[in-house]
Amino acid sequence: MSVSDHELIKIVSMYYEEGMTQAAIAKARGVSRSLIAKYLKDARERGIIEVVIKSESIYTTHLERQLEQQFHLKEAIVVDTSGLKTDDIKKRVSQQAALHLKHIIDDYQHIGISWGNTLRHMVDAFPYVNCPEAEVISLIGGLSDDYFDIQSNQLSYDLARKMRCKAKYLYAPALVSNQGILKELADNQAIQHVLEEGKHVDLALVGLSSLAQEQNMRRIGYIDDEAYRQLEMQGARGVINSRFYDVNGNELDNSINRSVLGMTLEDIQAIDNVMTVVYGDEKSEAVRIALSAGLVNTLVTTNTIAETIISN
Q1: CA distance 39 to 31
Q2: For 254, which DSSP code?
Q3: Which residues, 6+ apart, have CB-to-CB distance to 172 below 8 Å?
Q4: CA–CA separation, 31 and 19 (whole Å)
Q5: Contacts for 204 with CB less than 8 Å, ≥ 6 apart
Q6: How far apart are CA 9 and CA 161, in angstroms?
Q7: In tens digits, what is the pLDDT along the chain, a chain of 312 residues?
Q8: Distances (CA, A) of 90 to 120, 154, 309
Q9: Single pTM value for the model
């Protein structure tokens, strides 16, 4: 059904200037609602309507939508870091991650958490809420005295305290040097129970890094220079939950990955919502691979990382 320019402009005016609903306009003009929707679409395509969004956040919003559509994400939160120094970037990204987590936390009762500095900053920025029916579960072991504050058990405890809920811990090291000891630990009933519960969390909070930027595992002593060189030779591109993955997002078959007492990448991939927080432009490739492989589906990051991912 064709419509005159005069009638089209009148419909546009009724919708945008008078604030009438499409249903109300349809009733007033004696046509169907679907036809009104078509007229409004035609008006936009012909340039009769020009929508201008006046907001400083419109650029990052566009980046978020591009990421969500390109990688089929549940949510992307992009933080504008223009003019910010490194410490300010960390603070801003962590705050936004904490705000998003607060926004969605009521939808999840079983929350898993990995380890690392970015998760530490997010938990520190997370406000106190009341979720007594929820529980926080460690996704990887961690008993080292070094850097205890960034390990999974401590993060589980701190997040659960802020949520006023229970936590379940993996009382075992993150990496085990002997396969016999690893099997013995994994067969322990208490550890086995937590590992199994970790596979059924609704929301997983994980750190993500590139091989070159994975400093925590080297500082703690989980990997030495020789292990690092082997990872380079095997084509390691990124790491989640101390599990290194290749250019396709597949977990590498090596002694380090086989020594981890915690969730595998396959386990993590099966979780409904996997959220990561990433800053540092050097991690862009590792992030893009993880998104493409479906290892992560909620991303909080910077505009510079988002721009790099989208352009490649």
Answers
A1: 11
A2: S
A3: 141, 143, 185, 188, 191, 261
A4: 18
A5: 111, 112, 113, 114, 139, 263, 268, 271, 273, 274, 275
A6: 58
A7: 567 787 888 888 889 888 899 999 999 888 999 999 999 998 888 888 877 666 667 889 899 999 999 999 999 999 999 999 999 999 999 999 999 999 999 999 999 999 999 999 999 999 999 999 999 999 999 866 678 899 999 999 999 999 999 999 999 888 887 788 888 888 899 999 999 999 999 999 999 999 888 877 777 777 788 888 999 999 999 999 999 999 999 999 998 899 999 999 999 999 999 999 999 999 999 999 999 999 999 999 999 999 999 987
A8: 11, 20, 19
A9: 0.83
User: Using the 8-state DSSP alphabet, how is residue 307 labeled?
Assistant: H
Q: Cite the DSSP H helix spans in 138-188.
A: 152-163, 179-186
Tokens representing 103 are 């926004």
> Quick one: 201 exposed, middle or buried, by C-beta within 10 A (0-12, 13-18, 19+)?
buried
**Rounded Cα–Cα distance for residues 38 and 23 (Å):** 13
Residues in the chain: 312
φ and ψ of 100, to 5 deg: -65, -40
Tokens of 71: 């990688």
In the DSSP assignment, the letter for residue 132 is T
Q: From start to end of the chain, where are the E strands?
A: 75-79, 110-113, 135-138, 166-168, 203-206, 209-210, 238-240, 243-245, 273-277, 298-302
